[in-house]
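The instructor's notes for this session suggest beginning with a concrete chain rather than abstract definitions. Hand out the sequence below and ask the class to guess, before any prediction is shown, which regions might be ordered.
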Amino acid sequence: MIPEILADTKARMERAVEAAKEDFSTVRTGRANTALFQKILVDYYGSPTPLAQLASLNNPEARTIIVTPYDKSALKAIEQAIRDTPNLGVNPTNDGNIVRVTMPELTEERRKEYVKLVRSKGEDHKVHLRGIRRKSKDELDGLKSDVGEDELVRAEKELDGLTRSHVDLIDDALKRKEAELLEV
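After discussion, reveal the predicted structure:
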């Protein structure tokens, strides 16, 4: 029973680390990146729809993204959703067929704001990891009557090691993103 709990915990923690890395990729750096647009929701006929389902995203130049909608009637809604996205700071233009988004250069002040944002996201993901650890620890404590105390202590040490290693993975991804943001 203990190995199953630890295996499940490890799988959930790995998914949490991947979610953190994906979340970090949505914070923009000086270069245009289509990952920035993955979480944008467009009001498409009254329902919020991910931009990636409504249009293709291309990156022809270093600071330009071209959004080509599959349905031309969604052009205005896509343009509005991109404009209203916080922390992006772009003004898209629409030529009737495509939406062109030119990413402005980041100022030093804006870079520091993004670093704060990424650190905040990193802390949120670490809190989530600790929540996974707490839930697994409760499951292990529920086995107290079925298994020996030595096995529980060993399992808790392994659980702590798993948590520490996954928190370190998030910290490493955070450091990489901070360096990328501060790079001029």
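Then share the key points. Helices lie at 2-25, 51-54, 75-84, 108-141, 149-182. DSSP finds five helices and six strands in the chain.
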